[in-house]
Design brief:
Layout: H1 6-10, H2 32-37, H3 40-43, H4 45-48, E1 58-62, E2 70-74, H5 77-86, H6 95-105, H7 114-128, H8 130-134, H9 137-154, E3 158-159, H10 160-177, H11 185-197, H12 199-208, H13 211-241, H14 249-261, H15 267-298, H16 300-314, H17 321-325, H18 328-340, E4 347-350, E5 355-356, E6 362-363, E7 368-371, H19 373-376, H20 398-401, H21 420-437, E8 438-442, E9 450-452, E10 456-458, E11 463-468
Parallel strand pairs: 2-7
Antiparallel strand pairs: 1-2, 3-11, 4-7, 5-6, 8-11, 9-10
Helix pairs in contact: 6-12, 6-13, 7-14, 9-10, 9-21, 10-15, 11-13, 12-13, 13-15, 15-18, 15-21, 16-21, 18-21
The protein binds protoporphyrin IX containing FE.
């Protein structure tokens, strides 16, 4: 079996864009004046990061007048370990970031802290262990088969970002929440994306308004999205009450709540968890896959290698969880897509008490800290040719020589992404299932820029074509 080249399939050569899209960094750190005169820079934070931040260890920044807009960038792997892992108790999530997220996500796992977070993380952990996640593999593959089948049947160009969102939303609904999202898709997707679109305005509010004005402003922006999710949460609670045997995340949380307080979880509590898992659990993976298709379009030789690897492992059969571990190159493509376009481009923390890091940097209480996977993943001292797409860096010696915290798409320490194994298995199986059955090509790859909202995504919708693979 040989994988055809994209030129053979699509009938024209793929233009070579040597460097995957990235904003050209300004030469100087945008200060207060730039923030006032060019607020669009703050609407896409990664575009405001100056060139020297791609090789610095630390840097101060100030991008607004509110205290929330001042802080220190930490770009040094051992200090990142100190903040996220070793001394994590002294570095809770930043209060400005929470002010943006809490109106939508309330006390969900991403935004809760203290005892509520500890209890819910413990309850959710078993579902996200590697062994449990493997049980979802048939569901991942079946959903991907349906999606690629539908696209091939239609034969028309489609928005691949939208398709990846539909697919991952479908999966998170049926696997983690025990809900058939089906007809609710448009409503939920609208609630989530319309809220994410307001993220730059919320960020600017944090940078320029005092907390009392900021909170009211953010609350008004988030209200419509929250209302949409409320309706969906109520439907899920009703459905869960009528299920006899159910081991979804929500049923676990509901049982625990009854045991703790003798009461059912309130709509608010369920809405918080539903909103958290919908938001954290599908936009991130959908964008990883969208960027992977974009990168594979720019690099047809990598696309062919994925197809050959999948052919060898699965042949004409649907993929299984075991197959996923036999697809090292496909996995490396996902790892590299997560490096070049980390869905969570920025992680924010705040110092509780004065601290001194192992590198001797003093961090006073109340200090805001920016840890940026976007910058770390393109740091010139930690990566060779950091802007180049090269999945093989995850197959060879590079993984041994790159410092652990130079690569952190899922964060680190106690607040590390609970869905990391889930996301990687899901992404590998979706990519492989599509590659097994179709040639996929993004049609407008030349006009794309990454845009950091809450999640890093393309600034335009990506149109794509899918053609059936023949001669195999
Ligand atoms: C490629 C996909 C994903 C990426 C890149 C990603 C990234 C992250 C990152 C960086 C954090 C830590 C944020 C911080 O420390 O401030 C996080 C937390 C979280 N993620 Fe993910 N995530 C992904 C997929 C998922 C999936 C599939 C789920 C659920 C099914 C999920 C659920 C969560 C939750 C609940 C948290 C909060 C955990 C806690 O604080 O205890 N994520 N994610």
């Amino acid at each position: 079996m040989t994988a055809q080249s994209a030129a053979e399939v699509f009938g024209d050569p793929v233009p070579a864009w040597p460097i995957p899209a990235r904003p050209v960094p300004p030469l100087r750190t945008p200060g207060l004046s730039a923030a006032l005169l060019r607020p669009h820079l703050l609407a896409n934070l990664i575009a405001s990061y100056p060139d020297h931040w791609y090789e610095a260890d630390f840097s101060d920044f100030r991008v607004g007048i509110a205290s929330a807009a001042r802080g220190v960038l930490v770009n040094e792997p051992e200090t990142i370990r100190h903040i996220l892992v070793t001394n994590a108790a002294n570095y809770p999530k930043d209060d400005n970031q929470l002010a943006i997220l809490k109106p939508l996500l309330g006390q969900g796992l991403l935004t809760a802290d203290g005892d509520v977070w500890r209890r819910n993380r413990k309850l959710a952990a078993p579902i996200f262990q590697h062994s449990s996640v493997r049980e979802f593999a048939p569901l991942f593959v079946a959903a991907a088969e349906r999606s690629v089948g539908r696209l091939l049947e239609s034969g028309k160009p489609f928005a691949i970002d939208h398709e990846m969102t539909r697919l991952t939303l479908d999966i998170i609904g049926s696997s983690v929440l025990g809900a058939d999202i089906g007809d609710d898709f448009d409503g939920i997707a609208h609630s989530v994306t319309s809220t994410l679109d307001k993220f730059p305005a919320m960020f600017l509010a944090g940078a320029f308004l005092p907390p009392w004005a900021r909170d009211g402003f953010i609350d008004r922006l988030v209200k419509p999205g929250r209302r949409g999710l409320d309706i969906f949460a109520r439907r899920i609670i009703e459905a869960a009450k009528h299920k006899e045997h159910d081991d979804t995340l929500l049923s676990r949380l509901m049982v625990a709540s009854r045991a703790d307080s003798g009461q059912e979880m309130s709509v608010d509590q369920v809405r918080d968890e539903v909103a958290t898992f919908l938001l954290a659990g599908h936009e991130t993976t959908a964008n990883t896959l969208t960027w992977a298709w974009y990168l594979l379009t720019l690099h047809p030789e990598a696309m062919r290698r994925v197809q050959s690897e999948v052919d060898e492992v699965a042949g004409a059969q649907s993929l299984t969880a075991d197959d996923a571990s036999a697809l090292p190159y496909t996995r490396a493509v996902i790892d590299e897509a997560l490096r070049l376009y980390p869905p969570v481009a920025n992680i924010m923390r705040m110092t509780s008490e004065d601290d001194e890091t192992p590198a001797g940097v003093e961090l006073p209480a109340g200090q805001r800290i920016l840890i940026s996977p976007w910058l770390m993943h393109r740091h010139r001292r930690h990566w060779r040719e950091p802007d180049r797409f090269d999945p093989s860096r995850f197959l060879g010696d590079d993984t041994r020589t790159t410092p652990r915290y130079a690569y952190l798409p899922f964060g680190g320490g106690p607040r590390i992404c609970i869905g990391a194994s889930f996301a990687v298995l899901e992404a590998v199986l979706i990519l492989a299932t599509f590659a097994r059955r179709a040639h996929i090509r993004v049609l407008n790859a030349a006009n794309v820029m990454p845009q950091a909202r809450l999640v890093l995504r393309p600034n335009v919708s990506l149109r794509a074509a899918a053609l059936p693979r023949t001669g195999r």
